Every structure is written in C-alpha cells, then in structure tokens.
Amino acid sequence: MNLRWLLALCVGTALTLGAAAEGYRQPSPAVRAALDAPLPDRLQASPDGRWLALVEPRRYVPLAELARPTLRLAGLRFESNNRSGLPSTAVQGLSLRATDARPGNERHVNLPPGGTWHSFQWSPDGRHYVLQRRTAWSTELWVGRAALGDPQPVPGLRLNNVLSDGEWVWWNAGELLALALPANPGPPPKEPLPAPESQEHSGRGTPEPPHTGLLRSAHDEALFEHQARSQVVRVNLNSLGFSRLGEPGLFASLTVLGEGQALLTERLVRPFPRLLTWDDFPQVVEVRNAQGRVLRELAKVPSRQGVPVDGTLPGPRVFYGAPTKDASIYWVEALDGGNPANKVAYRDRVMRLDAPYTGEPEEIQRMPHRFARLRFLEDGAHALLSEIDRARGSTRTYLLPLDGTQSRALFEHSLRERARHPGVPLMRTAPNGHRVVHTAPDGSFWFVGQGYTARGERPFLDRYSLRDAPVQRVFQADGQFELPLQWLDAKRLLTQVEKPLEARQWGVRQAGAWSPLTAPQEPPAPVRALRREFVSFKRDDGVDMSFWVVLPPDWQEGQKRPALVWAYPLEYTDAQLASQQAQQSERSQWPPPGSPAWLALEGYVVIYDATMPIVGDAKTVNDNFLEQIQRNARAIVEKAEELGSVDVRRMAIGGQSYGAFMAVNLLAHTKLFKAGIARSGAYNRTLTPFGFQSERRNLWEAREAYLRLSPLLFANQIKDPLLLLHGEQDPNSGTPVLQSERLYHALAGLGQTVRLTVLPLEGHALASREAAGQVQWEMANWLKRHLGEPKGR
User: Fold this and answer.
1) What span, in angstroms and rounded, lies between the C-alpha atoms of 682 and 673?
2) What is the pTM of this model?
3) What CATH architecture is 531-787?
4) What's the angle, vertex CA 631, arms to CA 627 and CA 634, rounded to 5?
5) Gap between the Cα atoms of 724 and 218, Å rounded
6) How confident is the model at residue 10 (pLDDT cuts 50, 70, 90)?
7) Where exactly are the structural domains of the chain?
8) pLDDT, tens digit, 9 for 90 and up, residues 319-360
9) Pro residues composition bias: which ranges (predicted)?
10) Eight-class DSSP state of 591
C-alpha cells in the first residue's frame, strides 16, 4: 500500500467522527437506485456520415481500480505500470449501425473483459474505429472495422499516456500517430534513502498557484523523466503494424502538418521547476520529417515560472499546423513582453512559417488584446482568430485571411454573454484527419449556438459568408431543445433533442422534417419521480435571479418541507449580463451522483442551480462579494417562503468548490440557514495568495479582501452545524483537503457542531460508487439531524 496514501487516510479517518467504525455508508434504497441507474448512451457519427456509434459510458470507477498504486509527479496522477491516469470517459458498451438502418438495428460490439475501455474515435474515412484498453499492466490500442464489428489489438504496442492523456493524431485516413513506451525503457531510478529536501529562490517573483503533487527532489525529477519518456509510433489501421519514428523523448504534443508532409513536436526539457506543473515546464518545438528526423528547431520555450497573473510568455508560444496541403506552421508572440500591465497598442501577433521550413517567418496579424484561439477553415486560405480582453471581460472573433491581408471582425461579446451569444464554429473531421471549421463549396461556414430565450434554450445554426454578407439563420429549434451537431451530407443535418429530465435522442433534419435515428431511452424511475419547477424572481436591486425547485414524490399541496439551497457564485461586469443567467434551460440535466437533487427522494425540498450573481468591476468585484451573496441569499429565502412549499425556518445552504466557499461564508455572516453542507471548498484565502476564481490581485495588493473572504477567520461566528466533505486526493490548486481539515480543526476547537468526512482515493469530483453513496448518506443524515425529519406540516 502506498505509504503517503495510508498516512493521509489515517489523518482523514481520525478527523472524521466515527469513520473508522462506519466504513462506507449507503443512502436510502430509492436514492441508491437513482445513483445506480445507467447513464444515457452517447452517439458519435462517423465523419463521412455513414455510420453511428452508440457508446454506453461507465458510471463509476471501481474502488479497486482507484486503489491501485499511483504516482503523483509534476501535478500528474497516474499508474506507473500502465503509464496512464484515469480516463475521463470510460466505455462500458458499444454498438454500431449504418446511418440509413432503422433504429434498434444496432450491432453490439464485443469488448473483451479485463481492463477499462476508453477514447472511442472514428477514423477520418469512417472505415475504422479506434479504442484504448487500460489494464493494470499496460495501455493498449485496439482497432475495429465499421463493417465487421469487433476490434483487434495492435500487437506489441504499449501506449504511454502520462503526458498525452490518451490522445493521438491522424497521419492520414488509415494511419495514426501515438505515443508509446520506448522499446527499452529500462528500470526506474532507484529510490534513495530519505534526505533533506531544500528549495531556494532569489530574483524575479514567481506568483505560482499552490499546486499539489509537484516535483520535490532529484529522484522525483528522474522518476518523472523515466515515466513520461515516450516513443512516437506510426500505426497502420489495416495491417495493425507500427513503426517507430525518431528517438524517444518527453513528448508533450504531436501535430501532423498538412497532408502528412511533416510533423511538429513539442518536447519537455530540463530544468524542471519545482513550483510548476509539467505543462509549464521548458519545451523545445521542432519540425520533423516523416521518419521522425529533426528538420529544424523552431523555438526554445522557457518555463512559465515568474509569469505575471494574466500574463504570458514573451516569446513564441501556442503552435498550430495548417490542416491543408500548404502545411504551414503558425504561432503566437507577445508584443507587450507578456505583461498585461504594459501599455501597448497591440498585445500579440500571429506568425507563419511556410514549408520547407527553411526561411524566415512572416507576421500575418496583430491583435490589440490577448490571443485566445485559432481555428482553420477547410479552404486553406482562412481561419477564425479569437482574442480576449480580460480587463473588460469580453472576446472578439475575426475572419483571418492567411495571406496576411486585412482581417474582418465577425463579432464581439462578453465572456458571460448568453442571450446574444453567436455560438461556436461547426467543426468536422477532414479526410486527412484534421479538425477544421466545416466549410461549404462556396466558402461559407456555420456557427451553432445554444439560443437562450425567456422560454428556454432554442439552439440555432447560422451561415456566414467569406464575403461581407449578412448572416443567414439556417435553422432554429422551435418548441424544444434541438442542437445541430453535424452535417451528414449536403442536405441531412444530425441533431440532438433533449427534454427536461429525459434522455437525449438523435435524429436527422432534412427539408424541414425531423426523423429519429435512435429510439428514445425512457428515464429511470427515480428520474421520473422527481417533480421539478423553474422559478424566476428579482433581488432587491432588480437583478434577475432563478432556481429550480425539486419537490419530493410524496409532497402534497399545502405542505411545508425543510429545504436545501445549492448554489455557485458567478461574477458579471454588469446587471444585464447577470440577469441573463436566470434564463430557463430545458436540457435533460439528469442529476449526477452526489447531486443534491436526489435529496428530494428523501423527502426534502431541494432548491438547486440557484443563481448567485456577483456584479461589479472585474478588478474589484470581490470587494463586495460578501454583501452580494447575502443579498442573493435573502432573495432566495424570500422567494422560497412565497412558494409555500418550503419551511424557511428549516433551511440549509450548500455548495461544491466555490459554492462551498460561498456556503460557509453565508453561515459565518448570516442567520438565514439552520445548517450547511460544504464539499471540496477553500476557506482560507491566504493559502491562495496569488489569486483565486476571478480574483487577479494578490494577497498583498488586496489584503483586506482576502481576509474578509476567508471564513476560517470568522469561524467563531459559525454557530450552525456544518458538514464538510472532501476528496483526499483533490488535485485543484486552491482546494487541497487541508482546507477542510483546518476549518474542521478550528470549529471543533471552538466547540461548534461540525463533521468532516474525507473520501479516500477521491479527487475534486466523485469517481467511485462507494463514495457517491457515502456523500448522499452524509447529506441526508446531516439534514435529518439538524433540520428534522422531512414530514409535511
């Protein structure tokens, strides 16, 4: 057993009342059934529009898998044997069928047992699909043919996902590039005897977030280098053979240039800064030929140590490869030295280097604000360029000619804009495997948006022209949520339909008519039992607010029940933007494990997704954070009393992460609630001295704000019972488990009623079935103890 894990578990167990004797607890049968209900399938259409894959996601990570020995190095958490972290979306089942087949005619794919399947992807021509299987000893690549079904492994290939996170890139429609273990990785470096660990710094300031799991010794550095070292391999999907390209290295990124003319690699190099995570280490960017030989070193990118808050590196950064046959390389350079405090006319510029990569780069665009993203159109002559003005909280998108001629601004909007948000580009996988902006033969392209309205979301599809022509609305949903996903061909549009608390369904829209591609999935009984209602109202200064109220299945008209309010604060630069957050959503939104909504099955009224707007200047908005969350909370309580279903004398407040921080502050500064639940939060802002959430000032620039916003410093004012829940291996820089442990220690020392449960092996979110059940039991038990039995009166 990992010694560090054992020690942390012992600390957490000692702090948790009765945890040693309790073990994992289970919620009521109704909630357990809800937590165990299968997740809805996910659909992926092949790029050519001929095939559909119905992917059944795995709901939980087995506790035994979480308990396998892991390494925490350079901000990463992974297993040393299989060189992989936990996949974000594991595949439990897979079915395939042709697009023109009837719903229900899917062919089940046999996925051999033993290991975790993940990372399903179609090949660019739709003839193959690719999966990975993660076992206790290796990570494998499997390939299947769409027309035949079951996948086969690539013999002898062991992937290294330490830095790649399971991603690969396409060399062409039938070949991909991946990162694998070197042919002869050798043994790991021998762990030395314990010795003092020293760090020293002088000179330039280093305002780094306080990350966990960083490198702490020379042995850590050597072990990280051994584990992350990989070999670029080229895999043939037809023969299932592979070849090695070049020499092994610490490859962080691969990009195929054009139609396979060359390869762009980003490789980590020493020294490895002890205060940074791996993605901020120094890198060398190189162009390589088809055999992996270096043709040219493009840049030595230094580490991000010492970069100002909201700043960036002063030299070349963010490299892109053109998806078309010109195979050019693009990158970004700061014109303000990377420091947002410098007053300049332009902050960034985009550079271009053409094949064969021997000449000098040319500048093709300057931007008054900080670069955000570059997306290429299929025509090879244009791209969509986005920039961010953090001071104003806005973003702007340009249509950029890649020959360096004048760009055209398409739109500008607030980062928090909802009602007038123009959407995002409709993307597709090109025949050579690159992701590009889907472009029509006449050069026009599409944007798809959520379409927020007062009646709910009504997604739309807009057509933009390369000429300065009006935007044309091609489609807008009418009466329900219907989201455009992909053009299957010139006339058929794949869309996703959702209804409240129901599973999503996919279909094809053609000539104004919609026909289903998949059969509707009936929601599980616990979902159908929930009675949900959208409520909108205003706070005392006129800002619109809203929440969803979930009533127990046995609630009867006239009853008043105890209630839990669950919220998450969001910052806005003006009241109009804040009011947009209160618009209704009609998406399915099945409550995930750990959701407070399931407490309605225990008999409580649950007020969740309560808007918690914080309105003010982006630089100083937190100066009024406490006043605004109190104003919001009073408005929520007043509206809850008006509904008539809530006993406002028995209300609890809760939240996750920044919502937990909000909840504890409300307990410290108001008497509106009788109890609180705080999950994975931060309660001492002096432990995040270089900013948090939207706060960009450091502790010494805004000392008063940091102190006022730290509920730990007001623990003596928290008189109501507080339940603290935290994942023992929370990787977030601002929310290590230490935050909850210190607040528990303070409240216990003051004689207050508090309970802390530390969930072993869990991170910032819930992963295992056992932890999901424990959290639901903890919340229900806490409400019963401190709000009373949820009986109507």
Assistant:
1) 20
2) 0.94
3) 3-Layer(aba) Sandwich (3.40)
4) 140
5) 37
6) very low
7) 531-787
8) 999 999 999 999 999 999 999 999 999 999 999 999 999 999
9) 184-195
10) P
